[in-house]
Protein 1
Amino acid sequence: MSKKNSRTVSKRPDGTWQNKKDDASRASSVHNTQADAVNAARDMLHNSGGGELTTMGRDGKIRSKDTIAPGNDPLPPKDKEH
């Protein structure tokens, strides 16, 4: 069974925002704004087959959870011909 692909965006003690894979010990990227960190996390999840994105607020509580679709769908829908 494959591991769940998930990332969390959270604020660091120095005031910057990190994009971190949930099972990683270090951040994948660090940003000045929460929006930049969320965009980076979305792109990474999209490019790595999709997954779950959790965004933490300034207070450390969960602000939102999103499911990100994969970028390359191996089975795209077929075009319907009329």
Protein 2
Amino acid sequence: MRKTIFTLSAVAACMLILYACRKNVKTETAEPAVSDEVLAKIYNLGFSNKDVIPDGNGNYIVEGDILISEAELNEKVNVSLLRVGNEEQYRTTNLVRSLPRTITVSLASSLSAWSTALNTAISRYNALGLTITFSRVTSGANISIVNGSGSFLASAGFPTSSGNPYNQVILNNSAVSGQPQNTVASILAHEIGHCIGFRHTDYFNRSISCGGSAVNEGSAGVGAINIPGTPTGTSANSWMLSCIGSGQNRPFNSADVIALNYLY
């Protein structure tokens, strides 16, 4: 998934919004067009096919910060397991398996300024006593946090069909420069959430956290699997909301804790 910073003039003057996938910015080089065939495949997987970004490596960024590979575009989806929801927490079809297990995480040396932020993100998960725990390593990690560049804050993908977490989070060091450690901790915890199978809490209406017009990331009949026990009202300040304000801190709220404990 990719995160970016976006200035809202009408909705909130001078407020910066950090997008979970991609920032809506103008660039001098036009992004390459995405074929109708690819857009149809993305739609059939249950994701929004609006504002799709090719990353230049054969992958596509959808819904702001979700990375879909060429191989995943051709996977068959069991639509009976998926649903478009209202306001609860949602997960993907694939989850981390072989529990309990420890998931190792590494941080690129070029991102050393955010070591405290990563420690904070990890401690938020580990404090819940889940069947997955996170531990930092210097190499050979299950999830590698690496530096990136472009019109986004961070990006990640979803667990593999074999039950492993997505193996990489890209953090745009220049884009998050100047943000407090707790804001970057919230961004990293969000992207790790994608790596272990969480979708955006407001995927059905991104305007809840991003402002602007209502955008549903899913399509009728597919999109996300509801996590039982999570509230039917909007989950304010959930760590998996699509967008986060500049300087904002998002530790897990009560609904987030319910969702995490239900899955792990």
Protein 3
Amino acid sequence: MIEVYTDAASQGNPGPSSVGIYIKKDKEKFYQKKYIGTYSNHEAEFIAVLEALNFCRRMFPKEILSFRSDSKTVVEAVEKNYVKNDVFYPYLQQINEQTEYFPYVFFKWIPEKQNKQADKLAREALFDQ
């Protein structure tokens, strides 16, 4: 099973945003960070998951993925397959489409203190701009 940690950073809401992805596969570690443009903080969290899914499709096709995020909005949306805010619906739809490429994809909410690597990467990408 591959552990995928995602996070986003935004300056303002909406504002300049970036994502950080930290992946653990056995003893290997993978780091991704990317500036994504102007988004709300919640949109950026959804985009972080999408970026991680795209990376995993290239690097780990057919693997079981365990996502960890400190965004309750994203985790609850995926778990319930429902969003209250219609702005998030296209992101949820894309996540659902991408997860079909994997045998199992799990999502778990974690506290911020357990997501330090992804947070650090997202902040680096934001301030590298």
Protein 4
Amino acid sequence: MTQHSSKARTALVVVAHHRADSLTAHTARRTADRLRAAGYRVDLLDLHAEGFDPRMNTADQPDWGNREKAYSDEVHAHMGRVLDADVVVAVFPVYWQSVPALLKGWIDRVWNYGFAYGRSKPRLAGKRMLWLGLAGATADDAVTEGMHSLLEANLSEGIAYYCGFAHSTVGLLTDAEDRPQRVDAAGNLLVGDAVTGAEREAQYADFDRRAREFVEKFLADEGVAA
């Protein structure tokens, strides 16, 4: 693992969305700006823009049981970006209480056996991870508590800690849609009227504030001045 001085820490910000004008992409850019302001060198990885293929292939795992196997050139390049990072921040829309296929495929292909796990001393040991998930559900929807718990279990415990990360946390950003959404007791999706004008601008400002607070808490937990 590449070592960095306190003035040269690197943050890998991974954005998993197919539209550059999405709220997810906007949040990733704002997060990158916040990390730069905190003194990080930022590597912004837009998986869709870079044409990353999330499908595992035989070149990625020519011999699964061999920890020293040669990975595909594409995966090897992405592994280098992960190794160079002190912190990794993934920004993504929540699909079915999980990450989209684009991000899951990146983890499947890049966080491969012999690289991210399967060693007595993890290569990713000591790194820190922040997952920022954007959800359409409203903050007062009963589903959000279970959603956050499930994401923490799958992403922090099932992936980051399993791969040796020193710290991992999930920031769930609710109210990401312009129409409030909730599911009633019968399973019906209730969609409210679209929020527009000044009210929508205020909603965006509040969303940005909540996203910033997640990043600042993440930095504060590391002892980085916010």
